[in-house]
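Task: sequence design from structure.
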């Protein structure tokens, strides 16, 4: 079953986000279990961001979470946040193209 993690946060330092995510991607190449990662920004509040991260399963997400590089980047992200991050862990019940 596909598993999604939603990460919601606000920051007044958005220019520092992409280099942080690029660092994580390079450091976890060949070991991460993320199958898709979508970065979004709220049009009405440009300081508000939502990451939509897809994994093949909850277990795969937990393996990814346990990577030292993920823990490091999570701490760095938290330091950049003015609110959050807030995590939502979601089992995908259905996924249908419309």
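Answer:
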């Amino acid at each position: 079953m596909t598993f999604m993690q939603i990460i919601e946060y606000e920051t007044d330092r958005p220019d520092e986000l992409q280099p942080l995510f690029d660092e994580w991607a390079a450091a976890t190449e060949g070991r991460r279990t993320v199958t898709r990662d979508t970065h979004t920004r709220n049009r009405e509040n440009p300081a508000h961001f939502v990451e939509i991260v897809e994994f093949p399963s909850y277990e795969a997400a937990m393996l990814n979470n346990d990577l030292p590089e993920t823990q490091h980047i999570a701490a760095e992200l938290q330091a950049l946040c003015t609110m959050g991050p807030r995590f939502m862990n979601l089992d995908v019940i259905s996924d249908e193209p419309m």
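The beta strands are 3-11, 36-41, 48-55, 81-91.
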